[in-house]
Amino acid sequence: MPRNRNSLKYELKRLALQNTENEKNNRTRVMYKRCINQFTAWAKERNCKYVEDITKDMIQEYEEFLEEHPKSYSAATIHTYLAPICVAAGVPMEEIRKPKRLSGNISRSRRANKIRLKEKNLQGLQEENNPKYARVVALEKAAGIRRAELAKLCGEDLDFRDGDCFIVVRRGKGGKRQEQYILPQDVDIVRAIFQSVGAEEKVFSKEEMNNKIDFHGMRAAHARRCYEYYVERIETDQSFAFDMRIKLMERWLEAHETLCFSDRRTWSRQRSLFEQEMDYRPYKLRGDNLSKALASGSPTEYNRLALMCVSVLHLSHWRLDVTVTNYVVM
User: Fold this and answer.
1) Is there a single domain that holds both residue 24 and residue 128?
2) What's the CA gap between 238 and 224, in Å, rounded?
3) 226 lies in a domain?
4) N or C: which end of the chain has fewer CB within 10 A?
5) Which of 159, 181, 213 finishes a domain?
6) Could you tell me if residue 34 is inside a domain?
7) Angle at the Cα of 81 from the Cα atoms of 323 and 102, rounded to 5 degrees
8) Which three-class secondary structure state does DSSP give residue 50?
9) Quick one: 232 and 293 in the same domain?
10) DSSP state of 327
11) Of 69, 101, 133, which residue sits at a domain end?
């Protein structure tokens, strides 16, 4: 006989995905399903069978379960596990007490921490120097894109326009198209890797992508190298700084064209804020980032325009705080 009501797991997945803006993002779908699977296993032990049975108090109890979990989940992981449950149940995340996510606690792929890396990813460090993976390592160092984006690259994804070299990521994070700018000194390396690859042929084989190389750490190192490049050019050539502001604004206008027609007021406000982010003020670290920089002897001030160049052209972000916290501050 057919069941009268859908299962808790089915309904949670359906509601979570239909109520999120990222419903078409496969990465979001996979993560939501994983989080919901864990929650439903926990809820089953409490005789919770339907979405209507999920209350704010139950989600709070689940949060406490996550905090006390033997795996010692970080604040960011707890937020991730709670998000689809709150979305599906219609409970605002801000109403759930949970540990605060602090930038100083973000430690994913901090290459400066050599001891941690050797303990947790010895295989990845060995593979990084293995000739079998030389091509993919070389491109990652020159492009700084994500693992999933590397795996999908085809021969036709290398583009040259107005004297600039780009790698086109047709479906990056959030399902968005990205153009990853290649620094002039890296163009020959990238061109050589793409040269013998057919237009619709994958740049890297499955065997080349089957590794544990720390691509996120390499992406962060690439971001810092790009930052140094822009700082040197900006400080020695004022016309370069002027040209980069124009280039960045063109990128912003292209990326926000839809918003321009749908909400002109919001578009104007965001454009003004973006222009301010490229001015001559130094970007000064605060809070946990400042503490972390002081502890490691890293700089506490950065060139704002250089940071924006790295953020937009190489990381496909539009926020300096994301770039600083995840990629620049050691």
Assistant:
1) no
2) 21
3) yes
4) N
5) 213
6) yes
7) 40
8) coil
9) yes
10) I
11) 101
Structural domain span for residue 206: 122-213
Q: Yes or no: say if 124 and 116 are a contact pair by the CB < 8 Å rule.
A: no
The residue whose two tokens read 């040259």 is: 160
Length of the chain: 330
Q: Is residue 116 part of a domain?
A: no
- What one-character-per-residue DSSP string does 269-285 give? HHHHHHHHTTSSSEEE-
Lowest model confidence (mean pLDDT) among 71-80, 186-195, 206-215: 71-80
| Per-residue pLDDT tens digits for 109-148 | 444 444 454 455 688 888 888 999 999 999 999 999 989 8
Distance CA 117, CA 107 (A): 11
pLDDT at 327: 85
| 110 within domain boundaries | no
Mean pLDDT of 253-275: 91
Residues 135 and 200 in one domain: yes
Q: What percent of the chain has pLDDT over 70?
A: 89
Question: How far is CA 282 from its chain centroid?
Answer: 24
Q: 3-class DSSP state for residue 289?
A: helix
Tokens standing for 9?
Answer: 């797991």
Instruction: Please give the structure tokens belonging to residue 23.
Output: 């419903």
Average pLDDT in the 204-222 region?
91
Question: How many separate domains does the chain show?
Answer: 3
What burial letters (b/e) apply to 90-103, b meaning 16+ CB within 10 Å?
Answer: ebeeeebebbeebb
Looking at the structure, do residues 26 and 93 belong to the same domain, yes or no? yes
CA-based end-to-end distance of the chain: 60
Same domain, 225 and 324: yes
Phi, psi dihedral angles at 165 (to 5 degrees): -110, 135
Give the 3-state secondary structure of residue 302.
Answer: strand
Q: Pick from 174, 2, 19: which is nearest to 86 by CA? A: 19
Rounded alpha-carbon distances, angstroms, from residue 77 to 178, 184, 264: 27, 38, 36
Strand extents, DSSP E, 116-240: 158-161, 164-169, 178-181
